[in-house]
Design a protein that fits this description.
about 160 residues, alpha+beta, six-stranded antiparallel sheet, flat
């Protein structure tokens, strides 16, 4: 994570927060889980709807909309991200000259990004996005590595 806090939109303290959050997530060893997510942007309509994502081996394998989809939209795995994908995305944003700011809120226990708000430079059109994640539930296929997860209601 050499780029965090080195002239990009993330401040040094935000870079440190990212490193600590990613370390919490990685130390939990969760690769199979469900999470609810939505993305607000200039994106296909299905992405703005809260959707339960099923993740196996750090890949989105199934989606289940939790709200009605907009007319003409359909459920698909296309465009959805895993927690690991979002950590990589935050790092990538810090190297993007068109990004003005990145604000991230992390889950205090598991470290996953609960909200990422990206603001672009004023000379960039059709840019800016908000990613939201909530309700991570570890799948029973592989046990978590830390007892902390179990004490917070995660199987």
């Amino acid at each position: 994570l050499a780029a965090a806090g080195c002239g990009g939109p993330l401040s040094p303290s935000q870079g440190s927060q990212l490193e600590r959050a990613r370390a919490r997530w990685e130390s939990a060893g969760i690769t199979d889980y469900t999470v609810e997510s939505r993305i607000r942007c200039f994106c296909p309509g299905h992405m703005a709807v809260w959707t339960k994502l099923s993740i196996r081996d750090n890949r989105v394998i199934e989606t289940q909309p939790l709200e009605p989809l907009p007319p003409g939209s359909f459920a698909t795995t296309f465009g959805w991200s895993t927690v690991t994908d979002l950590f990589d995305y935050i790092e990538q944003l810090n190297r993007d000259e068109y990004i003005k700011s990145v604000k991230v809120q992390y889950d205090p226990v598991l470290g996953y990004p609960q909200q990422i708000v990206v603001t672009c430079q004023s000379n960039v059109t059709d840019c800016g996005v908000t990613y939201e994640m909530r309700s991570v539930v570890h799948s029973s296929r592989t046990p978590p590595r830390t007892a902390t997860l179990q004490s917070h209601g995660h199987p």
